[in-house]
Amino acid sequence: MRFRPWPKPEPYYDTSRKRAVFKRKQRLEREALPLFADKDEQTYLRILDRLRRKIERQDAAIEALRRKYRVNAQRPVFTRL
User: Fold this and answer.
1) Report field, pTM of the whole predicted structure over 0.70
2) Of 40, 44, 41, which is closest to residue 52 (Cα–Cα)?
């Protein structure tokens, strides 16, 4: 007796129907908890701002280390004797 293999997994396809379901879910959640919707958005924006500042600090620290240790600086050219 031979068994058929399981169906192969498919990647997630973004369809208009899935988007509509997701938007409806979000709308229902906002309507169910109207007081928290605005607060959640403010919290989300504050977190995004914090992440942006963290990325900027990390980039500045990386650049400072590159300057300190002369990473990516031009290397001297040696000629053969």
Assistant:
1) no
2) 44
